[in-house]
Specification:
Elements: E1 2-7, H1 15-28, E2 32-35, H2 52-62, E3 67-74, H3 80-93, E4 98-103, H4 108-114, H5 121-138, E5 144-147, E6 152-156, E7 169-173, H6 178-187, E8 190-194, H7 198-214, E9 223-233, H8 236-249, H9 256-263, E10 268-271, H10 272-285, E11 289-293, H11 301-312
Parallel strand pairs: 1-2, 1-11, 2-3, 3-4, 4-7, 7-8, 8-9, 9-10, 9-11
Antiparallel strand pairs: 5-6
Length: about 325
Protein backbone atom coordinates (compact mmCIF):
# COMPACT_ATOMS: atom_id res chain seq x y z
CA UNK A 1 0.00 0.00 0.00
CA UNK A 2 1.32 3.43 -0.96
CA UNK A 3 0.62 6.30 1.46
CA UNK A 4 0.46 10.00 0.57
CA UNK A 5 -0.26 13.05 2.70
CA UNK A 6 -3.37 15.05 1.75
CA UNK A 7 -3.74 18.68 2.89
CA UNK A 8 -6.81 20.92 2.63
CA UNK A 9 -4.97 23.93 1.25
CA UNK A 10 -7.93 26.32 1.51
CA UNK A 11 -7.88 26.24 5.32
CA UNK A 12 -5.20 28.87 5.94
CA UNK A 13 -2.12 26.88 4.90
CA UNK A 14 0.68 29.42 4.47
CA UNK A 15 3.78 29.07 2.29
CA UNK A 16 5.87 28.41 5.40
CA UNK A 17 3.38 25.67 6.33
CA UNK A 18 3.70 24.13 2.86
CA UNK A 19 7.48 24.07 3.03
CA UNK A 20 7.40 22.42 6.46
CA UNK A 21 4.85 19.83 5.32
CA UNK A 22 6.79 19.03 2.15
CA UNK A 23 10.04 18.59 4.07
CA UNK A 24 8.32 16.34 6.61
CA UNK A 25 6.71 14.29 3.83
CA UNK A 26 10.10 13.72 2.21
CA UNK A 27 11.75 12.83 5.51
CA UNK A 28 8.97 10.43 6.56
CA UNK A 29 9.14 8.19 3.50
CA UNK A 30 5.57 8.95 2.41
CA UNK A 31 5.09 8.64 -1.34
CA UNK A 32 3.69 12.07 -2.04
CA UNK A 33 2.01 15.30 -1.00
CA UNK A 34 -1.42 16.11 -2.41
CA UNK A 35 -3.49 19.22 -1.85
CA UNK A 36 -7.06 20.27 -2.49
CA UNK A 37 -7.74 22.82 -5.24
CA UNK A 38 -10.08 25.36 -3.66
CA UNK A 39 -9.98 29.14 -3.41
CA UNK A 40 -12.50 29.56 -0.58
CA UNK A 41 -12.42 28.02 2.89
CA UNK A 42 -14.88 25.26 3.62
CA UNK A 43 -14.08 25.03 7.32
CA UNK A 44 -14.49 28.60 8.48
CA UNK A 45 -14.33 32.31 7.74
CA UNK A 46 -11.06 34.18 7.42
CA UNK A 47 -8.99 31.23 6.21
CA UNK A 48 -6.93 31.81 3.08
CA UNK A 49 -5.83 29.64 0.16
CA UNK A 50 -2.82 29.81 -2.12
CA UNK A 51 -3.35 28.66 -5.71
CA UNK A 52 -2.86 24.90 -6.00
CA UNK A 53 -0.69 24.59 -9.11
CA UNK A 54 1.44 27.63 -8.30
CA UNK A 55 2.06 26.14 -4.86
CA UNK A 56 3.01 22.78 -6.34
CA UNK A 57 5.43 24.47 -8.75
CA UNK A 58 7.16 26.09 -5.79
CA UNK A 59 7.28 22.82 -3.87
CA UNK A 60 8.70 21.07 -6.92
CA UNK A 61 11.82 23.23 -6.52
CA UNK A 62 12.04 22.62 -2.77
CA UNK A 63 11.70 18.81 -2.91
CA UNK A 64 13.60 15.97 -4.54
CA UNK A 65 11.62 12.75 -4.16
CA UNK A 66 7.92 13.05 -3.41
CA UNK A 67 5.02 13.05 -5.85
CA UNK A 68 3.05 16.32 -6.02
CA UNK A 69 -0.56 16.58 -7.08
CA UNK A 70 -4.13 17.79 -6.61
CA UNK A 71 -7.19 16.06 -5.20
CA UNK A 72 -8.86 17.39 -7.23
CA UNK A 73 -8.61 20.29 -9.69
CA UNK A 74 -12.13 21.39 -10.71
CA UNK A 75 -12.80 21.82 -14.41
CA UNK A 76 -14.60 25.08 -13.60
CA UNK A 77 -11.41 26.95 -12.59
CA UNK A 78 -9.26 26.59 -15.72
CA UNK A 79 -9.44 25.99 -19.44
CA UNK A 80 -8.23 22.42 -20.05
CA UNK A 81 -5.31 23.58 -22.21
CA UNK A 82 -4.17 25.82 -19.35
CA UNK A 83 -4.58 23.01 -16.82
CA UNK A 84 -2.61 20.57 -19.00
CA UNK A 85 0.14 23.17 -19.42
CA UNK A 86 0.28 23.87 -15.66
CA UNK A 87 0.67 20.18 -14.86
CA UNK A 88 3.38 19.72 -17.51
CA UNK A 89 5.22 22.73 -16.10
CA UNK A 90 5.25 21.21 -12.61
CA UNK A 91 6.22 17.89 -14.16
CA UNK A 92 9.29 19.49 -15.77
CA UNK A 93 10.26 21.46 -12.66
CA UNK A 94 9.98 18.32 -10.52
CA UNK A 95 11.61 16.01 -13.10
CA UNK A 96 8.53 13.84 -13.50
CA UNK A 97 6.77 13.99 -10.13
CA UNK A 98 3.46 15.71 -11.01
CA UNK A 99 0.03 14.07 -10.73
CA UNK A 100 -3.36 15.47 -11.69
CA UNK A 101 -6.59 14.65 -9.92
CA UNK A 102 -9.47 16.16 -11.89
CA UNK A 103 -13.15 16.62 -11.07
CA UNK A 104 -16.30 18.51 -12.02
CA UNK A 105 -16.27 20.99 -9.12
CA UNK A 106 -18.93 21.08 -6.43
CA UNK A 107 -18.55 24.06 -4.05
CA UNK A 108 -21.13 26.53 -5.37
CA UNK A 109 -20.39 29.30 -2.82
CA UNK A 110 -16.76 29.36 -3.97
CA UNK A 111 -17.78 29.72 -7.60
CA UNK A 112 -20.19 32.53 -6.85
CA UNK A 113 -17.64 34.41 -4.74
CA UNK A 114 -14.86 34.20 -7.34
CA UNK A 115 -17.08 34.62 -10.39
CA UNK A 116 -16.62 31.13 -11.84
CA UNK A 117 -19.66 29.81 -13.76
CA UNK A 118 -21.38 26.94 -11.96
CA UNK A 119 -23.65 24.88 -14.18
CA UNK A 120 -25.93 21.98 -13.29
CA UNK A 121 -24.42 18.58 -12.56
CA UNK A 122 -25.15 17.15 -16.01
CA UNK A 123 -23.38 20.05 -17.72
CA UNK A 124 -20.41 19.95 -15.34
CA UNK A 125 -19.96 16.24 -16.03
CA UNK A 126 -20.06 16.89 -19.78
CA UNK A 127 -17.40 19.56 -19.34
CA UNK A 128 -15.33 17.15 -17.26
CA UNK A 129 -15.48 14.53 -20.01
CA UNK A 130 -14.18 16.97 -22.63
CA UNK A 131 -11.51 18.35 -20.29
CA UNK A 132 -10.12 14.90 -19.50
CA UNK A 133 -9.89 14.09 -23.21
CA UNK A 134 -8.12 17.38 -23.97
CA UNK A 135 -5.65 16.96 -21.11
CA UNK A 136 -4.89 13.35 -22.05
CA UNK A 137 -4.41 14.16 -25.74
CA UNK A 138 -2.30 17.24 -24.94
CA UNK A 139 0.23 14.94 -23.28
CA UNK A 140 0.42 12.55 -26.27
CA UNK A 141 2.88 12.86 -29.11
CA UNK A 142 1.63 14.77 -32.13
CA UNK A 143 -1.22 17.21 -32.80
CA UNK A 144 -4.93 16.63 -32.26
CA UNK A 145 -8.29 18.28 -32.90
CA UNK A 146 -11.42 18.27 -30.76
CA UNK A 147 -14.75 19.83 -31.56
CA UNK A 148 -16.98 19.35 -28.56
CA UNK A 149 -20.01 21.04 -27.11
CA UNK A 150 -17.88 23.12 -24.72
CA UNK A 151 -14.37 23.31 -26.25
CA UNK A 152 -12.81 23.49 -29.70
CA UNK A 153 -9.16 22.53 -30.15
CA UNK A 154 -7.53 22.90 -33.57
CA UNK A 155 -4.30 21.15 -34.60
CA UNK A 156 -2.77 21.42 -31.11
CA UNK A 157 0.62 19.86 -30.52
CA UNK A 158 1.18 20.99 -26.92
CA UNK A 159 4.91 21.30 -26.34
CA UNK A 160 6.83 20.40 -24.32
CA UNK A 161 5.51 16.95 -23.62
CA UNK A 162 5.69 15.61 -20.04
CA UNK A 163 8.87 14.31 -18.47
CA UNK A 164 6.79 11.53 -16.87
CA UNK A 165 6.48 8.46 -19.06
CA UNK A 166 4.08 7.77 -20.48
CA UNK A 167 2.51 10.84 -18.81
CA UNK A 168 1.71 12.34 -15.39
CA UNK A 169 -0.64 10.13 -13.41
CA UNK A 170 -4.23 11.14 -14.25
CA UNK A 171 -6.76 10.55 -11.46
CA UNK A 172 -10.56 10.72 -11.61
CA UNK A 173 -12.54 10.90 -8.39
CA UNK A 174 -16.01 9.59 -7.68
CA UNK A 175 -18.29 7.53 -5.48
CA UNK A 176 -18.58 4.55 -7.78
CA UNK A 177 -21.17 5.98 -10.17
CA UNK A 178 -21.17 4.65 -13.74
CA UNK A 179 -20.26 7.99 -15.36
CA UNK A 180 -17.12 8.62 -13.33
CA UNK A 181 -15.98 5.00 -13.59
CA UNK A 182 -16.50 4.98 -17.37
CA UNK A 183 -14.55 8.25 -17.75
CA UNK A 184 -11.72 6.83 -15.69
CA UNK A 185 -11.59 3.61 -17.68
CA UNK A 186 -11.47 5.53 -20.97
CA UNK A 187 -8.97 8.26 -20.12
CA UNK A 188 -7.36 8.01 -16.68
CA UNK A 189 -4.91 5.88 -14.72
CA UNK A 190 -6.38 5.90 -11.23
CA UNK A 191 -9.80 6.08 -9.57
CA UNK A 192 -10.08 7.80 -6.19
CA UNK A 193 -13.00 7.60 -3.81
CA UNK A 194 -13.63 9.44 -0.51
CA UNK A 195 -13.83 7.71 2.90
CA UNK A 196 -15.21 4.38 1.68
CA UNK A 197 -16.31 1.51 3.88
CA UNK A 198 -14.73 -1.91 3.34
CA UNK A 199 -17.84 -3.11 1.48
CA UNK A 200 -17.73 -0.03 -0.77
CA UNK A 201 -14.06 -0.66 -1.58
CA UNK A 202 -14.81 -4.24 -2.60
CA UNK A 203 -17.86 -3.39 -4.71
CA UNK A 204 -16.24 -0.39 -6.44
CA UNK A 205 -13.13 -2.39 -7.23
CA UNK A 206 -15.28 -4.93 -9.07
CA UNK A 207 -17.04 -2.18 -11.02
CA UNK A 208 -13.69 -0.68 -11.99
CA UNK A 209 -12.29 -4.00 -13.16
CA UNK A 210 -15.34 -4.60 -15.37
CA UNK A 211 -15.09 -1.08 -16.80
CA UNK A 212 -11.39 -1.56 -17.55
CA UNK A 213 -12.18 -4.78 -19.43
CA UNK A 214 -14.99 -3.10 -21.38
CA UNK A 215 -12.60 -0.31 -22.38
CA UNK A 216 -10.10 -2.89 -23.68
CA UNK A 217 -7.64 -2.27 -20.86
CA UNK A 218 -5.96 -4.73 -18.51
CA UNK A 219 -7.69 -4.58 -15.09
CA UNK A 220 -4.32 -5.41 -13.58
CA UNK A 221 -3.12 -1.94 -14.61
CA UNK A 222 -5.79 0.04 -12.76
CA UNK A 223 -4.99 1.89 -9.54
CA UNK A 224 -7.78 2.26 -6.99
CA UNK A 225 -7.17 4.78 -4.20
CA UNK A 226 -9.05 6.48 -1.41
CA UNK A 227 -8.87 9.83 0.31
CA UNK A 228 -9.66 9.36 3.98
CA UNK A 229 -9.01 11.09 7.26
CA UNK A 230 -6.31 10.09 9.69
CA UNK A 231 -5.42 10.68 13.33
CA UNK A 232 -2.34 8.72 14.36
CA UNK A 233 -0.16 8.95 17.46
CA UNK A 234 2.75 7.19 19.11
CA UNK A 235 0.47 6.09 21.97
CA UNK A 236 -3.18 6.33 23.00
CA UNK A 237 -2.69 9.60 24.90
CA UNK A 238 -1.24 11.22 21.81
CA UNK A 239 -4.11 9.89 19.70
CA UNK A 240 -6.67 11.36 22.11
CA UNK A 241 -4.82 14.68 22.23
CA UNK A 242 -4.85 14.94 18.43
CA UNK A 243 -8.53 14.02 18.32
CA UNK A 244 -9.31 16.70 20.93
CA UNK A 245 -7.34 19.32 18.99
CA UNK A 246 -9.20 18.45 15.78
CA UNK A 247 -12.55 18.56 17.55
CA UNK A 248 -11.73 21.96 19.03
CA UNK A 249 -10.67 23.23 15.62
CA UNK A 250 -14.01 22.14 14.18
CA UNK A 251 -16.05 23.39 17.14
CA UNK A 252 -17.15 19.89 18.15
CA UNK A 253 -18.07 18.99 21.72
CA UNK A 254 -18.27 15.62 23.41
CA UNK A 255 -15.82 12.86 24.22
CA UNK A 256 -12.75 12.33 22.09
CA UNK A 257 -13.13 8.58 22.66
CA UNK A 258 -16.62 8.71 21.13
CA UNK A 259 -15.27 10.76 18.22
CA UNK A 260 -12.47 8.27 17.63
CA UNK A 261 -14.86 5.34 17.71
CA UNK A 262 -17.04 6.93 15.01
CA UNK A 263 -14.02 7.90 12.91
CA UNK A 264 -12.65 4.35 12.95
CA UNK A 265 -15.46 3.23 10.63
CA UNK A 266 -13.90 4.89 7.59
CA UNK A 267 -10.63 6.56 8.66
CA UNK A 268 -7.13 5.53 9.72
CA UNK A 269 -7.22 6.02 13.48
CA UNK A 270 -5.04 5.02 16.42
CA UNK A 271 -1.50 4.18 17.34
CA UNK A 272 1.14 3.22 14.80
CA UNK A 273 0.32 -0.48 15.18
CA UNK A 274 -3.42 0.19 14.86
CA UNK A 275 -2.86 2.33 11.77
CA UNK A 276 -0.74 -0.40 10.19
CA UNK A 277 -3.47 -2.98 10.84
CA UNK A 278 -6.13 -0.69 9.38
CA UNK A 279 -4.12 0.06 6.25
CA UNK A 280 -3.46 -3.63 5.69
CA UNK A 281 -7.20 -4.29 5.97
CA UNK A 282 -7.91 -1.56 3.41
CA UNK A 283 -5.33 -3.09 1.09
CA UNK A 284 -6.88 -6.54 1.39
CA UNK A 285 -10.28 -5.02 0.53
CA UNK A 286 -8.90 -3.68 -2.75
CA UNK A 287 -7.13 -0.33 -2.32
CA UNK A 288 -3.73 0.33 -3.87
CA UNK A 289 -3.06 3.76 -2.41
CA UNK A 290 -4.29 6.11 0.34
CA UNK A 291 -4.26 9.91 0.38
CA UNK A 292 -4.35 10.43 4.15
CA UNK A 293 -6.20 13.66 4.93
CA UNK A 294 -4.35 15.58 7.65
CA UNK A 295 -6.69 18.33 8.85
CA UNK A 296 -4.36 19.78 11.50
CA UNK A 297 -1.78 21.00 9.03
CA UNK A 298 0.36 22.79 11.63
CA UNK A 299 0.88 19.46 13.42
CA UNK A 300 3.93 18.51 11.39
CA UNK A 301 4.94 16.03 14.11
CA UNK A 302 2.15 13.68 13.03
CA UNK A 303 3.77 13.36 9.61
CA UNK A 304 6.83 11.86 11.32
CA UNK A 305 4.53 9.37 13.08
CA UNK A 306 3.09 8.42 9.70
CA UNK A 307 6.65 7.66 8.66
CA UNK A 308 6.73 5.01 11.39
CA UNK A 309 3.58 3.51 9.82
CA UNK A 310 5.23 3.43 6.40
CA UNK A 311 8.26 1.69 7.88
CA UNK A 312 6.07 -1.17 9.14
CA UNK A 313 4.07 -1.75 5.96
Amino acid sequence: MRICLMIEGQEGVTWDDWMALAAATEDSGLEGLFRSDHYLSIGGEGRSSLDAWTTLAGLAVRTERIQLGTMVSPTTFRHPAVLAKSVVTVDHISNGRAELGIGAGWYEDEHRAYGFPFADTKTRMAVLEEQIEIVAKSWREGPFDLRGEHYTIEDLDALPKPVSKPRPNLIVGGSGGPRSIELCARWADEYNTVSPTLDEIKSRRKLLERAWESAGRDPGDLVFSAMTGGVVGSDQNEVRARARALMDQNGESGSEDDWLERARRTQVIGTVDEAVDRIRTLSEAGLDRIMLQHLMHTDVEMVAVLGEVVDQL
